[in-house]
Amino acid sequence: MLTAERIKSTEKIGLTTIRTYIDLMFDESPDFVTGAFGIELIERAGDRPNDENCFQSVFGKTEFGLVFPKLIKIKGLPPPPGSIALYYDDSNTTICHVGLTTADGKIISKWGLGGHVFKHPPHHTLSEYGHIKKYCKYIRE
Description:
The protein is α+β, with helices and mostly antiparallel strands. The protein has one domain (37-138): endopeptidase fold (from Nostoc punctiforme), CATH 3.90.1720. Helices cover 18% and strands 28% of the residues.
């Protein structure tokens, strides 16, 4: 059986392997990823709107659907806390996932429609979420 303890004991594994383990654990139960690879549960699914995805969690939702604000790319790393992390697909054309940066360099994001909110290292997400291409901030109008 795949357990967090077993995975934690594995040394020097690559990002692809880590993401594969995260996928397998998440498919078994979203609760299984908590504690593995620096992933922390921030908020349970039952404490959030049932039909909310990661985009709505970050940008908000109105009766007309998703509110997607104007964004400006942040240059230089690390990004300031509260920056928006945009995850793109392998072709770098589609935004697949979004989260907010924290002071300790991690990301807070909602995983799945009606899923939990996790705090995680930037690249330790589900593989379907792609990779971080850029960090942004809101443009205030």
